[in-house]
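go over this record:
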Amino acid sequence: MNKNYDINFYKYFYYDLSHLSNSQLINHYQRFGIKENRFININHLISSSKLFNNFNIEKYKSYNHLFHLNDYQILSHYYYKLKDKLEDKLEDKLEDKLEDKLEDNKIEDKLEDNNKLKDKLEDNYIYIIHNYKLGGGTSKYVKDINNRYKSKIIESKKELLRDYIKGDIIFIQHFLQTDIKIEDIIELYKNNKIEIIITIHDFYWLSIDNEKIFNNKIHNIYLNENIKINDRVNKLFNIAKYIIFPSYFVFNIYSKYINKYNFIKIDHIDYEIEDKNFNYKIINNNINIGNMNILTECKGKEMIEILIDKYNNKRYKDYKINFYCVDYNIEKYNENEFFDILDKYNITSLLHLNKWGETWSYVLTKSIISNLPIIYNNVGVYKERINDKNYIIANNENEYIELVKNKNILYNYFENILDNIIINNNDNYNKNKIKLKFKNNKLYDEIFYKFLYDEY
């Protein structure tokens, strides 16, 4: 390790590294910083650039009202601001040369050279490997990234084979419904000055046959005690700049099997949540229980169907119990229709009875925002994201299996929850129109700061 390496300088001078721990910063410098010619301390920075001749930190801070930044961040702010201006001037000169060249060369066989020159003027992009046919949370995640940052979608190996420029990013969730292989990415990395970032959606990478997997194994393999990581996966993860995890649940599981030097935990881009008291009203003694996920084994289909068979359209004490489930007796909905569905059926509580752990869940975000009681199984990310005022049925994956077998215990748990829902009925219920607002995600913005669209 270079004895002149200043870890605080490295952390704060580079916006994209400010969220890393000290051990991650050291690993980053050894694996990437040296190769990328990154500065290691203030003296290294100043001696390498004439931009800092006669530069005064305090004057710059005062003039630009940057009192919230430390000295390292001030240097970074000044350096990148000037660097961008110089690059803009250089780009203008290149464009002028290009225009002159286009005027001077009318012959068709010269146009190819001009187009290559033009390509060099294009911005960096995040190239996201994805096929929108997958749908669900994986496609919503990509759509949110695509809307916020300068990015392009790659669906095939043919589209992957293109000219890249230094600073481009290959962004990977998985290779489902594409013909792209791990070897294609490794070869691309060898031959281009690109960065690779992997974001974890599920347990796809823990399967040996990960390119072909598209079944329950992708959801429950984490329960297997004999997981072996494919060597190709290890090679891919080793060349990635970051591996992004949306929750500690999935972060900790992958950490058991893969070196975590480049692991970081960042919440998905999602809506702001305010922690408020329950806000619902039981009307005409109807307790309407909603399940806003499509019924699948992963989402708790077995348990939900047991409860439906026992209680749906039947009386409990003085109340009628009604279940409303997507693609069962209520229509599929677009994301912006979520709260309209709750209003339409006067939903008084929501189910999240997963059999296996979720790694994030956008549906859960909106369920929490609704301020309705959530009846859930305490598995996966639900342990992190749902507070204890809500109602647990199963405490873990094994208890889920036991409750499905021993229905009377499940009924007893559920009826205790019904009693609580009745007790907490809000006679002063005030129906408010819910407005969704995206939460500022500073860590994503720091990693992708040069790709951020101007409107953000």
